Amino acid sequence: MLQAIGLTSARHRGLPPAVDDLTFEAGPGCVTALLGPPGSGKTSALRLMLELEPGRGITYFRGRPLHRVAHPAREVGVVLGDVPGHPARTARGQLRMLCAAGGVPASRADEVLDAVGFAGLGDQRIGTLSPGMDRRLALASALLADPHTLILDEPAEGLGAREADWLHGMLRSHADRGGTVLYTTQNPKEAARSAGHVVTIHAGRLVADQDGADFSRTRLRPRVAVRSPHAARLAAIVSREARVARRSIEVVTEESSSRLSVYGSSCAEVGDAAFRHRIPVHQLADEVGDTGPASRAPGDGLPGDAPAVGATRNTGGAATDGGAASRAIGAAAAKDASGAAADSGGAQLPPPIRRRPARGPLRPVRYELRRLFGVRTTTLIIAVTLVASAMLSVVLARNGRTPLPHVLVAWPSLLPLPPAALGAGLLGALSFGDEFRYPALAAGRGTVPRRLGLLLAKLAVSAGVALFLALFVVLASAESLRLVYGGDLVRVPSNAVSLAVSWSGLAVGCAWAGLLAAGIFRVTAAGVAAVLAVPVLMVPLIQAMPKAPTARSMSGLPGRLGELAWLQWPQEADRWVLALVRVVAHPVGAALTLSLSVLVCAYLFTSLRGRVRW
What we know:
By secondary structure, this protein is an alpha/beta fold. It has helices at residues 42-49, 72-75, 91-102, 107-115, 131-143, 161-176, 188-194, 212-219, 231-245, 267-276, 319-346, 364-373, 376-399, 404-408, 419-437, 452-485, 496-521, 524-543, 557-565, 573-585, 587-609, and strands at 2-9, 22-26, 30-35, 55-61, 76-80, 149-153, 180-185, 197-202, 205-211, 220-227, 249-254, 259-263, 283-290, 311-316, 352-353. Helix 6 links the parallel strand 6 (149-153) and strand 7 (180-185).
């Protein structure tokens, strides 16, 4: 059961709210259509229900508001627009990544692919999907956690008749299993054909709340569609004959064309009248016409109040009385609904709806691994980095003047950073940059939740990839040198441990700098710029600082720290701490440490402003 009570969107710049005191229910085992013309507030109503927009009101999902549901993905499946997936990611890879985000086993991805008719197409790239296939993937994403309620915004928009029928069949199947389905549409015929309950809104307010049978009877009427070059003359003849025969019909003539609609008659009667008066007819067919919301007031300008601009109505017999009666019944129903809403909200205002942060992934490390390796970009960057490093090391070793450590890491003096550091920084920047460009964690928002769990997972995965890249660059360079120049050139230096620590710290630091900067500024280019700023801006700044004429030794620092903390340090701690201090004291190390410190503070500041949570 879905209960929306007093939904009212926030006002912007003095304009009326897009949704104004909207109250309705969508019961289990039934497909409910939220019907309204474009701009009537349908999408805003859904976003208020899902707490994606600020406003007032409350929505209960089986008795609980969404922010009090422990696992929202297992309660509500949402389709708002297209699937925000990377175009190069496969459909199966996208669903498995979302499985990790929702805490669902990865095998569930193949199950929903089969359920939506995507079997055998799981390796299809998202960027190559047709609109119909995209809707199938969107529905599969909503069904991953087997939710009780489905909420969809214009799910059949742009689809052909066959794809739309399949989609509505899936929605009815979910409702038949006891689920609740709510979808928006602007097509009354679609609502009558596929929904068992229709809620009609206009200008953000409730117009009618009817079951499917009542909606079809009061809103959709059978008619005869006629196209003739003498439509006005035929309309007058049909109306006159109806008055003579005391039959109740309504004739609507569109002045801008040669088309007219006859309500309350049949193709045979209209065709006979045209034949008797020798009026040519180019079209004669039975249709179902939309008469507009039955609860409208005269002249309120609702869509469907008139078939077209400049149309005129001719009535015969008791048609006027019947139309007035149906409008009176609808108006009374709307008045009762609005009165109930006023009674429920008259004592006090509905509770405020706060825009709450999106939930982070329940399995963040698995999610980040699938996000990172689900596209070919990561493999391509690693491959290019390894090849470029191997070629540079061969070139640097040829003159014999470059130190062996710089040769192994492929770091010529002309480059601000070696290729491995740049590659690690780019992968780190993409870690958050792709989140904001293709926000899989925040459907319909375009933002990424600032969760510490997600940040720690990204830091851990990016550090592991950076260490892997740094190690394989050294191994690839050493093997290239052995193949080209023989094995005598490569030898293990005496300070190999400190060099390895420095090299690993540089790779990991660049990856973290790119990741944090992309997370702060929400764009990949900012992460790459932060990595390049370390050697280009920060290193010259560190080198320009005045140096003391004499340097003091920090030997014995671990022992003094141990005395301060009442701890016993190992004997090797002194050597390790001094090695770490030498790494940080290097201009590049100091610049990288300073940059990371600033980025961490900036990220925490922006996160705390957004009330970061786990």
